[in-house]
């Protein structure tokens, strides 16, 4: 029997599912588990990774939320067999290092994306450099984001960024409602790229930086790079791998 630790969001259906599964399969403490089963939506899946990142356990998600792109279908039956035959996807997060207007440094990891967002009615003004070379002297926009392949179907796609296959070894740099240059649609970068955003007119046009669900307000500059020292493992039912979902998303209506 696989040693399973169950965790669930606060949604009633997730809590009910956890209780039923724990009764059927037992509920191993996280410290002794071989795998974590997370019940909820995509947001809760990301929270579970952040909460237990240091343990390096694979996580098998079951959808008891709304979207469920990162989740498997919920069922009380055959869970051990599903986990045993599941396909594994390795995800490498982005490391964000942000400096605020007070000179304090903030470090956070993002599985989906790092976003810079305007805090007031006025557009943000950003300077963008890649690997130390200036690429955009001034980007006037609502914000911008850098997305991992796993996150490319989330906020990045809503901002009209490209969907990226998991094995493409690229990152998406996508503007959010760019005003100038108006026709700039972003760029695809090597996964080894180091992206730097500098906030222009920070006191007049304050900007926040968000790594998944971790927000830093009033930033001056933000450095983003993939962290290959951290590998996160998601488990998906056989034949419904994350690679297949990302591919299918490109042909959806």
| Order of strands in the sheet with most strands | 6-5-16-13-8-9
* Poorly predicted regions: none
Query: What is the CATH homologous superfamily assignment of the largest domain?
Result: Probable inorganic polyphosphate/atp-NAD kinase, domain 2
Largest sheet: 6 strands, antiparallel
β-sheet strand percentage: 35-45%
CATH topology of the largest domain: Tumour Suppressor Smad4
Gross morphology: elongated
Query: What structural category arises from helix and sheet content?
Result: alpha+beta
- The number of distinct β-strands equals 17
What is Rg?
19 Å
Overall pLDDT level: 94
Distance between the termini: 41 Å
Number of helices: 5
The name of the CATH architecture of the largest domain is Sandwich
Helix content: 10-25%
**CATH top level class name of the largest domain:** Mainly Beta
Number of individual domains: 2
Question: Keywords for this structure?
Answer:
253 residues, alpha+beta, Tumour Suppressor Smad4, 2 domains, 5 helices, elongated
Can you offer a commentary on this structure?
The protein has helices at residues 12-25, 42-51, 79-84, 155-158, 242-249; strands at 4-8, 35-40, 59-63, 87-91, 94-100, 105-110, 113-118, 124-130, 133-141, 143-147, 170-176, 187-190, 194-200, 207-211, 214-216, 219-226, 232-236. The N and C termini lie far apart (41 Å). The strands form three sheets. Strands 6-5-16-13-8-9 form a six-stranded antiparallel β-sheet, with no helix packed on it. The chain has a six-stranded antiparallel β-sheet with strand order 12-11-10-7-14-15, with no helix packed on it. The longest helix is centred in the N-terminal third of the chain and has 14 residues, at 12-25. It has two domains: 4-91 and 231-249, Rossmann fold, CATH 3.40.50.10330; 94-226, Sandwich (Tumour Suppressor Smad4), CATH 2.60.200.30. With 253 residues, it is α+β, with helices and mostly antiparallel strands. The protein is built from five helices and 17 strands.
